[in-house]
């Protein structure tokens, strides 16, 4: 693989890592069924076809996969090659997420992307020809020095390519990145809001439904992995630096029923592939006091109403009086609406999501 990472050895470690985590999804000798696989982080499209086939075959041999399982692979347009992607589809990949980010060459250079607009368009056209179940196009807005007209031009080009799913999200400056040490000039809040409002209108008129804060899809094309994540579902994190969230089986010794654990695997490839140490780097229990924040931080990112019974089902406990007062305050601030059965994020709540979540901190 590019960068010198030995592909075959790494895949062996990933499969061994999966085997070590199987007790986390085993209850009374029965493994839980897996409904989606998301192969991301770095550039998984650099894998060879044979490597991808071995990885997916190895996963299927170790865990029960639902017949309708969604299997997504992230791809950088600069690594999209027709023969390889046909091979990936034959190996079992049925959904591709293409990290286009922008169709403007200057913005791509500012983001440090290795592809150009021509490669981005070609990658999307190839995905359309493959006969996949679905594919996603990743697009950013709020880029350095980007104005409303530039952002709409990018979005119109993405819509014209007719992806079944479009992730359209604002650039954020993350720690340990080049932008973090030397922050660029980003659009101000008024420009960002106008971009979001006009973009939402464009996407809606084109037949896309916003089902998550930063994701739009044609009817029936929502990403199942995303939905499980934002509904506060469980997921195994397998591979270098992977994060997982698991509700421990009731039969787990010395743990209360419905204990939720967060897992983190060794981040550096050299350490991850060191036979003298474990793949697991950190395991932490989500404390009871943090459950409301974690649940609503995820659940209020999606547009669908949240059944009130879902909180107890997913966390194993009832809301406290303090948390109920936070929800009442959110209603007073018109961030959410509520009836006997469910909570619903409002348009105001969508705009001021951070203010809503701050109520639970």
From TrEMBL:
Biological process annotations from GO: porphyrin-containing compound biosynthetic process
Similarity annotation: Belongs to the anaerobic coproporphyrinogen-III oxidase family. HemW subfamily.
Subcellular location: Cytoplasm
Lineage: Bacteria, Pseudomonadati, Pseudomonadota, Gammaproteobacteria, Alteromonadales
Function: Probably acts as a heme chaperone, transferring heme to an unknown acceptor. Binds one molecule of heme per monomer, possibly covalently. Binds 1 [4Fe-4S] cluster. The cluster is coordinated with 3 cysteines and an exchangeable S-adenosyl-L-methionine.
Residues covered by the Radical SAM core domain: 1-212
UniProt KW keywords: 4Fe-4S, Chaperone, Cytoplasm, Heme, Iron, Iron-sulfur, Metal-binding, Oxidoreductase, S-adenosyl-L-methionine
GO MF assignments: 4 iron, 4 sulfur cluster binding; coproporphyrinogen oxidase activity; metal ion binding
InterPro entries for the chain: Coproporphyrinogen-III_oxidase, Elp3/MiaA/NifB-like_rSAM, HemN_C, HemW-like, rSAM, rSAM_sf
Species whose genome carries this gene: Brumicola pallidula DSM 14239 = ACAM 615
Protein name: Heme chaperone HemW
A GO CC annotation given for this chain: cytoplasm
Chief subcellular location: cytoplasm
SMART domains per record: Elp3
